[in-house]
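Whether sequence alone determines local backbone shape is best considered at the level of individual chains. In the encoding step, the backbone of a single protein was reduced to a row of integers, each denoting a local shape. For completeness, the protein is quoted in full, as a sequence line and a line of structure tokens.
***
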Amino acid sequence: VLKNYSDVNLGCGKRPATGISWVFEQVEEAIILEDDCLPHPTFFQFCEELLEKYRDKPQVMGICGSNYKMGNPSYSYYFSRYFICWGWATWRRAWCHFDYEMKRWPEILETGWLDEFLQDRRVVKDWTIKFNQAYYGSSSSYAWSYQLQFACWQQNALVVRPNGNLVSNLGFGAEATHTTDSSSSYAVLPFDLISFPLKHPQTIVRDVKADNLIHNDWLRQKSRIYRAYKKVKKILSNKL
């Protein structure tokens, strides 16, 4: 067992990034878990099989364990443009594209590339804010997943998402850094069964319908009306 500890507190942005970089100085591929996330036992077999299957496929940049009830049920998994990093796996050849400082972001922003890539002004606005936060430092002390998402899109790559949820995030609550809403629909998601042998999609093609559902749900949960509804619901539940 190899262990790596920082001598100083680097925060939950830079430290995961430097830690994962250290991991890929030791090994070619790895399975990575957030400390407040619980994997289903089949998550590891799922990752191991697909790490091998897509090892030499640069258009696949990672394997995620989370599913929000989206995707084509005809197969065991689907391909998405959205990296969910609660429990995931990747290769050294993919992580080498990660740039914590996102040095190319100002140049990319000026070209309008994100508009062309995402083709939805609401989603473009949302991700422009996130990437600006990562680049200009307002989230640099606690975020690294935005940088990973940026690297994935810059490579025009996809990630695997299972058609059953294999990772449950237990860390929702008022004291959390990011996931402060304990009533979120993403909190403590139940597990789903994944059957083996896996049923593989015939081609590496993004599931556009599933991705649209993902970003529409994200935007819905960030809307003022939805947040107001959640506050009222919480107040009423506390009075009952």
